[in-house]
Structures are given as structure tokens and as C-alpha cells.
Amino acid sequence: MAKPFLGRGVGFPIAVDPNSHEIAWADYEESVRQSIWIILGTAKGERVIRPDFGCGIYDLVFEMNLPSTAGRVSQAVREALLVFEPRIDVLEVQVTAASDSEGEKLLISVDYQVRSTNNVFNLVYPFYLERSVG
After folding, report:
1. Residue-wise over 24-58: b if at least 16 C-beta within 10 A, else e?
2. Rounded mean pLDDT of the chain?
3. pLDDT, mean of residues 58-87
4. Which of 54, 55, 97, 131 is the most buried (most CB within 10 A)?
């Protein structure tokens, strides 16, 4: 059975395939996962040619670790994925404080469904709030 067209791109981070000694590729659902990771890891304005690309969570990096901040992070993630990753449906975004001693670390859990295959996946992205030193 043929795989549905989800695309193929250079893997992220760029690496060399140890068997073929060529650039490693990301295919199908792995391409989608890497795309989500890139969207969440890019601040708006970071890319010169596409200043609108990325996620607005980096505008919140100096916020306090409060439930309202978690809500704003969740909304920024949903908006970015809606705009920049049309191959998925975002099912749920949960933002929680890390359970370890790192009070400034938020875990962003994204449940998404790949539209062409209906496969459901989860991605957890760590996001660090900056603590002010005073």
C-alpha cells in the first residue's frame, strides 16, 4: 500500500545517514513531527525572509510561571500550528510546570492527528521561562 503524500525533507537537525553517507531525510509522519518542532522552536521575527513564521511563546519568556501564562502559551502554540502546519489537526495542547525542581520549565504537550492518515501522535516540547536575577 502506498504511503499518503506527507512530504519529505531534510532531517532536523541536519545529519548524515551512517549507512549511505548522504544527508538524512525525514519522511511522512516524521517530517510532520520535525516541522512542529521547528515551528515551536522558532520565535516570530527570527527568520529574516519570513518574519511572521514561528510561535509567539517567545514573547512570554519573561512571564511568571502562573496558570495564566500556561494558558497564553497554549493559545500561542495552537495559533502557530493552525497557521504553519496544515497537515495536522491539533487535538489538545496542555501546558504544565515540570515536576522536577526547575520551576521555570514548562512542558508543552501537543496531541495532534495527521489528516491524511488519521494517525494520532503526541509531542512534548520543553519551554523555559527566564528567571530575573535581582
Report:
1. eebebbebbbbbbebbbebebeeeeeeeebbbebb
2. 86
3. 94
4. 55
pLDDT of residue 134: 45
Residue type present at position 67: P
Separation of alpha carbons 114 and 66, rounded Å: 31
Is 133 inside a domain boundary?
A: no
Give the Cα separation of 105 and 110 in Å (integer). Answer: 16
State the Cα–Cα distance between residues 22 and 109, nearest whole angstrom. Answer: 33
Alpha-carbon distance 54 to 84, whole Å?
A: 8
* Domains identified in the chain, total number: 1
In a domain, 26, yes or no: yes
C-alpha cell at 96: 504544565
The string of pLDDT tens digits covering residues 20-47 is 877 776 677 888 898 999 999 999 999 9
Q: In whole angstroms, what is the distance from residue 121 CA to residue 134 CA?
A: 41
CATH number at residue 64: 3.10.450.40
Q: Which residue has the higher pLDDT, 29 or 128?
A: 128
